[in-house]
Amino acid sequence: MSKQAILQLVIYLVSGFIIGLFLHKIIMPLLARLAAKTSLKSDDLFVKTIRKWVIPWFLALGLFLGLKQLDMESRFYFWIENGLMIFYILSGTLIIANIVSGMIKIKATGSDTIIPSSSIISNIVIVLIYCIGLLIILQSLGVSITPVLTALGVGGLAVALALQNTLSNLFAGLQIISSGNFNKGNFVKLASGEEGFIEDITWRSTSIKSMSDHIIIVPNAKLADMIVSNYHLPQTQLNFVVEIGVSYDSDLDHVETVTKEVILQTLQDNEAGVKDFEPVVRFFAFGESSIKMKAILGVQDYSAQFAIKSAFIKKLLVRFNKEGIIIPFPTRTVLQKTEE
């Protein structure tokens, strides 16, 4: 190898590195600023992903052009060309996988609102893209992919028979996501009594974070066959009821007015309260020692009701004491029969 050939190799390497560095430091940041001015998030994701590969791409191209200048056997040139081709296909596959998995979280409408997503979708998409990239590499190397696809088909049948439960959970997870009835972040209550926020839907199970910050793992197949209450659909706002008993001597119109005022005050004082909520008070039964009524409050989401209920009860007790409204203790009248 002559000194001139080595010098040419170094020049190509340095030139490729300089071009890549220029694009990485100057052109790509300019494109990133232009993308940031648009209302779309997909172009930001595209520029950010491509920028990581600019220097390796041009450095590899410089290495390839430099090695082409060397006096080598033709088989070495073939290996170099195949190596460069594999590198570009592999990097392109990684870029597409990252972009597609990122765009799964973005609405196709262009509003760029992040939609609830789960790892099962992104994982399946990434695996499919990797498989397609591998098949393209094999085809580019002259390897016939028809026998490979045939072997995968036959092997897939054997795997499907051996992994029936796993595939059942996988397809149940896909059905759960496609139905739109369960999304990441939703608060759900299962028929078995467990409740919490959906953390993730994987290929095997759904993770639910309970109110005590513990994780509940539910197989997808069981979740798909279970009765589930979703407190985030069709909206996150909900109403909850607080039952109260007042004395039979109370002025019920006055009790209703005072209770509504306390409801309004409680909702206004708490961020999670629905500010424009119309308070509702309903008397519904004659109890053994009190007249029963229900106070209905509106909150932004399911988990907010507990703190607001506590604040409402404390405020209502103070207000009732001030207004002279009695919440009676349970009483019993005992009749004792005397012998004559």
Structural summary, described in words:
By secondary structure, the chain is of the alpha+beta class. The chain has three domains: 3-114; 173-230, Roll (SH3 type barrels), CATH 2.30.30.60; 238-323, 2-Layer Sandwich (Alpha-Beta Plaits), CATH 3.30.70.100. Helix content is 55%, strand content 14%. It has ten helices and eight strands. Strands 4-3-2-1-5 form a five-stranded antiparallel β-sheet. It has a three-stranded antiparallel β-sheet with strand order 6-8-7, covered by helices on one side. A hairpin with a 4-residue loop joins strand 1 (187-190) and strand 2. The radius of gyration is 34 Å and the shape is elongated. The termini are far apart. The model is unreliable at 107-117 (pLDDT under 50).
Got a strand count?
A: 8
Q: If you compute it from the alpha carbons, what radius of gyration comes out, rounded to the nearest whole angstrom? A: 34 Å
Number of domains: 3
Describe the sheet with the most strands: 5 strands, antiparallel
The helix-and-strand class reads alpha+beta
